[in-house]
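Consider this record:
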Amino acid sequence: MGGFAGGDEGGYWDIDTLPASMDKQNNNASKNTHRGKFDIERSDLGYSIKIHTKELYNTISFIPCTCKTFTIEGYNNIPLESNAIYKAFLSLTNFTNDTDIEEFFYTHKVIVTKPISPSANPRENSSDAAAFICLVKEVCNLVLSTDELRKIGSCVNADVPFFINSIV
C-alpha cells in the first residue's frame, strides 16, 4: 500500500493510504510517543515532531556589587559595545531618561549563565536582550507598555521585539 498511483504518467502520492500504511507498521505507537528529547505526535493529518530541551536555557541575574560602569559577565568573547544586553541597557536609558536605571547598575552587575558556551549567535543574544529589558522593567518599577518595550528592543536589533512578545 502507499506510494505512487497513476503509473508512468507522473503520478501522485496517495496521501489517503500513507497514514493507514504507517499505522500498520506502528501498531503499538501511541498518540504522543516520547523518544529521547523530542515528542512524536500523530494525528489524522500525519506525524509531527517538536524538539525541546527544557534543561537548556540562559539565566540573567542582577547580582549586588559596586561597579564603576555597566558590568556584564558571561559573554567573554563578545566586546561590551557589541553585546545585545549592553545595547538594551543603552536603549532603555536613552528611551526613559531614567537615572534610576544607571544607579541600579552601579550597585548590580549582570551575570548571564549559559548551559552551552557563549556564542555570537544573534538570535540567542536577542532573546537575552529581550529578557534583560523585561527584567529591568520589573526590578526598576518602570511604567512601560508592551509597545514601548518593543520599541526599545527594536533599537537593539530587529529580533528583540519578537522575543519581548513571547515574554510579556
User: Anything to note?
Assistant: The helical segments are 17-25, 84-96, 99-104, 122-139, 146-154, 160-167.
